[in-house]
Amino acid sequence: MRLLAVCAIFFCLAGQPEAAPADEILLLEVSVNGRQTQTVLQFTRRAGKLFVSPDELQSAGLRLNTTSKEQVDLSSIAEDFQLDMAAQKISIRVRPDLLNTTQLNTATSESETVALADKYPGALLNYDVLASQSGGSKAVSALAEARAFYGPHVFSSTGLTYAHEGKTNSLRLDSTYTYSNPNSLQRYRLGDFISNGLPWSRPVRMGGIQLSTDFALRPDLVTFPTPDLRGEAVVASNVDLFLNGIRQLSETVPPGPFEIRRPPVATGAGTMSIAVTDALGRQTFRNIPFYASEKLLRDGLLSYSIEAGSIRKNYGLQSSDYGGAATSASVRYGWSPTVTIEGHAEATSGLRQAGIGATSAFHEWGVLSAAVSGSATADNLGRQYLLGFERRAANASFSISKTQADRHYRDIGAMFGIPVPRSLLTMSMGLYSQKYGSFNLAYTSARTTLPGTESMPELRPLDADIISFSYFKSLFNRTNFFLTGYKNRTDHSYGLTVGLLMALGEKDSVSSTYTSGSGLRNFSLQASRPANLVGDIGWQLQDNEGDFTQRLAEFSYRSNAARASFAVAQNGNLLSQRANVRGALVWADNSLFLSNWVDDSFAVVDTNGVSNVAVYAENRLVGRTDQRGKLLIPDLRAYEANKISLDLRDLPLDVQVGASEFTIKPQDRNGVVVRFKLAKSLGVRIILKDSEGKFLAVGSTVKLKQGGHTAIVGYDGETYFPELQIEGTLEIITASGAVCRLDPGSIPQNETIPVIGPLTCK
Fold it and tell me: What InterPro entries does this protein's entry cite (predicted)?
């Protein structure tokens, strides 16, 4: 019986299944497609399979289309894997599309990384004064701009004054307050401005308020569509990007997809080429033709302009002739990478006008534009249509545009006396060759009707039918040949000019031209040197002979304070003279400066009182600091990086400098202050000897007890302490422990860098 019980128990145990083995946790160093990821992932070995979480795979550069946190079977996503338990490593091979996309950037504009300069209040007065005398008649005219600014806030007013034969007339041109916001690309104007528009609308001068998008606030921003450059590397490879055959980028990428963001693109037709080369030298090459145009907006990009106010009339003749309320609005939107849509509307008393248009990329051949607009007045409805095509390439260009309006079509300009062209056709063609030169041909045909007068109430036509051409060819020894001509088929006038232009050295040039047209013939010979930089002396000599005789001699000089010129001319038997001064008076950094005309932004360089220091802008010498240690640079570029630097060789030996170079990004029509931290050094040179009267060894160190400054001993026992604190007896300790004592009263005070010694260290 006992035997039977034992057998029963044995058979019962044998019939039960074995317990499942426990999961095994593995920590493995991972490589993917032959590339070491420098990561250690946690795997779970279960029933002979490896499982891993999606988060772990993501840290190794893989991406899974799942939001689940559950572990996945490695064999379900990997094409193959090799496990090396002895080395605790695993090599995984997956499809390239499962790898993270590598982002490649072409050269980043320095303007993107430089912050806007600090705000500084200031004001300036630009002036351009011309005095002339001809045949006993004297005249003086002056153009001026008054400007005040503080960061994004700018107020500017321009005016013109003219004095002749005892009479003086003054005229205001524009007065405008402007607020600019580079972050939102918005610009607001209050005062006088020109309305924005589209190629098929006409801008007008207004006084009022304007809100608009201004891409000039971000010069680094690419507003038009660029090619979508994507690729895939099976193994670690080198990616080269070429634009029209010129290398723009060379980067190493890991296995997987890659994307080149914001490639450099020149407008017009071109070809992007991507070369992918692996470690074995195998290369794949892909050409991507494209057409880039500033007439298109990048996908999703929006620009607009809204204006409201009064129409400015008799501009340049009267200071404040405003009449007729008007408003207008324009908008452009990047609908897709190939289509930009646009719209425009405007209104004034008795007029409502609106239109829509679109510009589309026509494959890689060019851009096609179309627009239609309509107007409504009290009596009539009018329509206008536009159709155009443009192609530009490195060796050829072509464009054609046709605008057609019926006799009832009106816009704001037409309501204030500027008629709408009923028909406007423009065509142009260009051929460019380094060997044969460049040739351009243009044709313009316009049909316009002008409102009649009281004596001629009927409409009077004003037509133009002009064909023109130009040819330019570089010859030899910096000599260029040019030929231009035109023919107006409406009034049968014509003109032809042929000439040679030769550059002599870096600045001088000579030219000769022959002109014939409408019964007049003339030959001209000219030699000149411009005064573009501070310190330049310029001159111009000109002689015209033929049906029109003129001789001219002009001399000019440009300083930090202004540009001045004087000219003598002979026109037939009439002798005339003129003198011109063009410059600016600037108040900034609590200082007054005389400067050249300030078109955009400027900088005040402050060297903390150190005079006669050479200052450079973009490695170009722009002047030297004055007795106050200041210099004004009048020609900076707003919203772009501008490098300002000093010539350290000009600094006295006893002057120390922190940074010798700054990169600044000024705001629009503003002034910034660039402060270089120059300070007079309290340093001295001390000659040291040991107790035996020998100079201390070259390269040995000594230490100043007061302050702990350490210095190296040079030849003849000489050492230098840049900041010597003169308080009580100074003690210098050598490496051997010997002490040299110095009485401050023995330090010469009338030397740039005093020399003391020799001192004996005991």
Answer: Fimb_usher, FimD_plug_dom, PapC-like_C, PapC-like_C_sf
Which CATH number do you get for residue 87? 3.10.20.410
Contact 421, 402 (CB under 8 A): no
What are the residues whose beta carbons fall under 8 Å from the beta carbon of 130, sequence distance 6 or more? Answer: 140, 141, 142, 578, 579, 580
Q: Percentage of the chain surpassing pLDDT 70? A: 88
Residue 255 lies inside a defined structural domain of this protein: yes
Nearest CA-CA partner of 415 in 455, 380, 370: 380
The amino acid that residue 229 corresponds to is L
Domain assignment present for residue 181? The answer is no
Mean pLDDT of the chain: 86
Burial 282-314 (b: 16+ CB within 10 A, else e): eeeeeeeebbbbebbbeeebebebbbbbebbbe
Report which of 643, 651, 710 is spatially closest to residue 679, judged by C-alpha positions: 651
Q: Does a cis peptide bond (omega within 30 degrees of 0) precede residue 451?
A: no
pLDDT in tens, 385-419: 999 999 999 899 999 999 999 989 999 998 998 88
> Of the residues 100, 135, 150, which one is the last residue of a structural domain?
100
The beta strands (E) that lie in 455-529 are given as 460-474, 479-488, 494-504, 508-517, 520-529
Q: How far apart are CA 356 and CA 374, in angstroms?
A: 9
Residue ranges with strand state E in 293-350: 302-312, 322-334, 339-348
Contact status, residue 619 vs residue 645, Cβ threshold 8 Å = yes
For 502-538, what is each residue's pLDDT tens digit? 999 888 999 999 999 877 899 999 999 999 988 899 9
* In-domain check, residue 461: yes
- CA–CA separation, 727 vs 753, rounded Å? 18
pLDDT at 747: 57
Helix, coil or strand: residue 30: strand
Domain that holds residue 29: 24-100
pLDDT band, residue 724 (cuts 50/70/90): low
**Sign of CA pseudo-dihedral 257, 261, 267, 272:** negative
Domain end (from 85, 100, 115): 100
* pLDDT for 463: 80
More confident residue, 429 or 80: 429
DSSP E strands, 234-267: 237-243, 246-253, 256-261
| pLDDT above 50: residue 41 | yes
Residue 717 · residue 689 · CB < 8 Å? yes
pTM score? 0.80
- Count the Cβ atoms, other than its own, within 10 Å of residue 624: 17
Cβ–Cβ < 8 Å for 59, 41? yes
**Alpha helical stretches, state H, 193-327:** none
Distance CA 265, CA 258 (A): 19
**Residue 694 belongs to a domain:** yes
Q: Is 456 exposed, middle or buried (0-12, 13-18, 19+ CB in 10 A)?
A: exposed
Confidence of residue 273 (pLDDT cuts 50, 70, 90): confident
Tell me if 187 sits within 8 A of 212, measured CB to CB: yes
Residues 6+ apart with CB under 8 A from 90: 28, 29, 30, 31, 43, 50, 81, 82, 83, 84
Higher model confidence: residue 266 or residue 151?
A: 151
Higher pLDDT, 424 or 744: 424
Q: What is the CATH number of the domain that holds 717?
A: 2.60.40.2070
Q: Is the separation of the CB atoms in 176 and 192 below 8 Å? A: yes
Tell me the pLDDT tens digit for each residue of 363-382.
Answer: 889 999 999 999 999 889 99
Give the chain's domain count.
4
Residue with tokens 């023109």: 468
> In the structure encoding, which two tokens stand for residue 92, read together?
């995984």
Average pLDDT of the residues in 186-210: 95
Q: How far apart are CA 205 and CA 198, in angstroms?
A: 15
Side-chain-facing half-sphere of 473: CA atoms under 13 Å:
11
Residue 665 is given by DSSP the state: B
- Give the three-state DSSP class for 716: helix
